[in-house]
């Protein structure tokens, strides 16, 4: 599939000095500068020959491991009819992320953002008996999602390449089995790719279902916060990571009083003014909750001053599934005309719901807004100065040092780029689309389903985000566009150089090595800068001076120093490095 032309003069190398101004991330800058991708429009990229070699290598590893796990490859259409999506109700749910199109008959379609509907349609038509199950299908295919803010090059693109797999089962145990096999296949894939990664518990989001895990490539620039235990293998997306709070609330010792806070609206500033720890302050976040009938009500969420609201957790609290932040007019309307910055839970009307984070529920003698401009209250206590909260729930992000939910240590935080996601869907889609099979007793049953995605094109960006230096990309061997570059000095001027370079090139080709021969007669500095930028893992420099001593120069992309290797041993030297 990958073309066999491996001479630079016949290949297409188009590196550039400047990174585009819209490239915030190093990986995006380097992918453009190395000429792996070219931008067509917002979130739309062409994979140039050099980049495509990388993408295809990633794809090949994904395919091998999926095949090894017993999944069957198929290929479904990118364009999908609206009717299918109406069956699951997702035509509306997916919202503006979905690119909707019409054909000449004004029939409606979408450009598929995912394929649960299409595969379930196949399953309900093709699978009749329990004897055909379990079954796992997968494809490597182009998806389109009209992201609000396409960015980071191919990492959050609108058109991107995904490997998506779907499994079908008669029972939950079988689904669990396949889910574990996919977990193992993903672990194999990211290990073979040479990436630092972690599997974490995840929220199931719009795809829905029972259990799910994400695979993240670890990188400081990652969009997702991850929490992991220092003493066990517990790890979760911060969206999901539970806080465990133990202990009981201490008895009140102070009386409640007004404190002057003329300019202090943030908890940190109030704490500083009062010369106390921010951990003794409570902030109130004003929300509007919408019930099933669409009626809105005002609500205060209480968090310790230094903690952050976790919106995913909040949506799981009874009555809070549909919330938004209140605007100033709404805050003033419900809290005595008090402006934001001084609001709190004391003295609010009975119909204002107060949802306290678990940590807050255990606090006593705390400081909070007074619902009076320029004032806070100190020495505040639940049950005495205000009622117990209407609800107590885990609604904050975990912080470094929190106890791990498995009780085996404390949590540390890091950042990651989501490259894979595995879900147990259960019968969500089979029920919506009536995908049934006949069991041993001839009775009709809904199939159980799992789905498993990998962002194939995102992996390339994520890998570069993890592996680069000031000279450019440092590709892991598994996905480098070429594994070895031969840089002859004076290729067209010196016959001995040309002969030695050609011989090594042929030898390596015969060994099946992806070797690039730079036969363009560029200056050494240009050749080195380009191959470093492109991230080629191994470089051999062949020049007349070295050849006089029967030597060539070898350098690994990961090391700073080059070494001399004798001409007769260079092939073996490289083959050893590659294994
Ligand atoms: P994200 O939270 O990053 O938006 P997602 O949860 O919407 O991702 P899934 O529906 O789980 O993504 O899709 C499977 C995989 O496809 C993701 O794990 C990710 O690697 C990849 N992916 C999703 N959206 C994009 C995108 N806009 N560009 C490139 N890859 C993407
Ligand atoms: Mg996801």
Short structural description:
This protein is an alpha+beta fold.
Describe the overall structure.
This protein is α+β, with helices and mostly antiparallel strands and 579 residues long. Strands 3, 7, 8, 9, 10, 11, 12, 21 and 24 form a nine-stranded mixed β-sheet that branches. Strands 16-14-15-17-20 form a five-stranded mixed β-sheet. Strands 28-27-29-30-31 form a five-stranded mixed β-sheet, sandwiched between helices. Strand 5 and strand 6 form a beta hairpin. The longest helix is centred in the first third of the chain and has 21 residues. Adenosine-5'-triphosphate binds next to strand 8, strand 21, strand 24 and helix 12.
Largest sheet: 9 strands, mixed
Number of strands: 31
**Average residue-wise pLDDT:** 95
- Counted by DSSP, the helix tally is 16
Instruction: Return residue spans where pLDDT drops below 50 for at least 5 consecutive residues.
Output: none
| Class of secondary structure makeup | alpha+beta
What is the helical fraction, as a range of percent?
25-40%
Protein topology:
Elements: H1 26-33, E1 37-41, E2 44-47, H2 49-68, E3 72-73, E4 79-81, H3 82-88, H4 90-93, E5 99-102, E6 108-111, H5 116-126, E7 135-144, E8 159-169, H6 172-192, E9 197-201, E10 211-218, E11 224-229, E12 235-237, E13 257-260, H7 267-273, E14 282-290, E15 296-304, H8 311-314, E16 323-325, H9 328-334, E17 353-357, H10 358-361, E18 366-369, E19 375-380, E20 391-393, E21 411-426, H11 428-433, E22 436-438, E23 444-446, E24 448-455, H12 456-466, E25 468-469, E26 472-473, E27 484-488, H13 495-510, E28 515-517, H14 524-534, E29 538-542, H15 544-548, E30 551-556, E31 563-566, H16 570-578
Helix pairs in contact: 1-12, 2-6, 2-12
The structure holds adenosine-5'-triphosphate and magnesium ion.
Adenosine-5'-triphosphate binds near residues 147, 419, 420, 453 and 455.
